[in-house]
Amino acid sequence: MSDTLQQLAGQALMVDVAGPRLGEDEAAFLQQLGTRAICLFRRNVPDEASIRRLIADLQCALGEDILIGMDQEGGAVMRTLFLPTAPSAMALGAVDDAELAEQVGAAVARGLASLGVNWNFAPVLDLNNNPANPVISERSFGEDPLKATRLARAWISGHLSEGVACCVKHFPGHGDTHTDSHLDLPVVDKPKAELRDYELSPFAALASLTPGMMSAHIRFPTLDADWPATLSPAILQQLLREQLGYQGVMITDGMNMKAIRERWGQAQGSAQALAAGADLSLVLQFQDEMTESKQALIAAVAAGRLSETRLQEAAARVDALIRRYPSRQRDYDPAQRAADAELFADAWRRALTAHGQPQRPPAGATLRLVVQDQAPSDGVSEAGLSADALVTRLIAQLSRRFSLEVIRYQRREELDWRRLPQDGRYTVVASTTRGRYGARERAEWRPDLHLALWNPYAAADLDAPALISYGFADAALDAVAQWLSGEIEATGTLPARLQ
């Protein structure tokens, strides 16, 4: 086995690290693995000083020419809590202003560049044509492919102008699924022509602009009867490379997701993905499986299932990405940072959408807020909105105009709506999870106002007027409070049908 093959196999893997500090043992493991691509999660970025030190330590261990990736989409999918929270894609879809989308993309990149992150796994190009989709919803710009493409193009252009690469996802489209690929393998069984005209449309339009693209762990039987997209030569090579002419870096979605790991394993999945046309396999969570993935690539070359030339091609694409978008920490001017925070706040305000003609409570009223105590993570955003955080923000904004009574519940099935006091108080249900409501809640819950603070499709579940924010960032909650107080109107327009 040649040293070159060892090097190429290690460079074909992007992996994660345990926490905000890089210990000697972990640094030695990464050096032995031979990777130069690291994916960061919220556990790695508790504050600015920690992430700056971590990236500096990674550069010291692996060399300055490294790829530091992170999901910084906006909305609920923001790995950093210390940077201003950008509006979600669907919030931008509700505003429908390409200039704003470009400015937001640039501002997101400025925050990342200040840390040394040089690859952002955003934006989402999946289209919202399935209200039951458990994982995309507000992460998409909407259901109309032309509008979504226009906004995504602007967002990408702004992002790239600040010297940080982006990575559109999830090719060839994750919008029309009922299954979360973190948990199982979704299937989208649609005719080729329908996929071409709808799901594939944004990817085809933006293939020449984006330097990175992430595959979907989804099976499309009309495109490939055997393999999901991540492992499919028909999809990654023939469709993406040959028909769409894509020349950038193709990375897999996380290979630790059950759609792949429980069927093929991260190691064999990595070998198949690289053979299919991927340039990086995103191998996460388990160090032994990272090592096994490297060994699987080497074994696949020896067995003739994967060529060394294919690994060289993958390495060359990653080389070009790193050269064009180097990982270099730079200053984030306080005045610019404040301007970016105000830009995001303005976007959240403009996105606020009324559904079903909601009426404001009268001044001096007591608002009865019904909210889940702790919002469970959806596995993508990592953290939801707790009742404490929501109440604290609303009290700070509304205390001069309203009183607030809070009714908390741990699980929805514990709340008996019929037991709420029938005293005429203005009752507000706040939806703080991505999950939809079930038949019991649909039949019984009758609030005066439904605040859909995460999944906009939840607004269709309750027989009540709704205010939709497309996210629960502080600025989004402030916009909700401003609407309740009569300071602003809800001027956003739903970018997707709710049913």
TrEMBL record:
It is an enzyme of class 3 (hydrolase). Its EC number is 3.2.1.52. Residues 7-319 form the Glycoside hydrolase family 3 N-terminal domain. Coiled coil: none annotated. Belongs to the glycosyl hydrolase 3 family. It comes from the Bacteria. One of its GO terms (molecular function) is beta-N-acetylhexosaminidase activity. Signal peptide: none annotated. The keyword Hydrolase applies. This is Beta-N-acetylhexosaminidase. Keywords: Glycosidase, Hydrolase. The keyword Hydrolase applies. NCBIfam families: PRK05337.1.
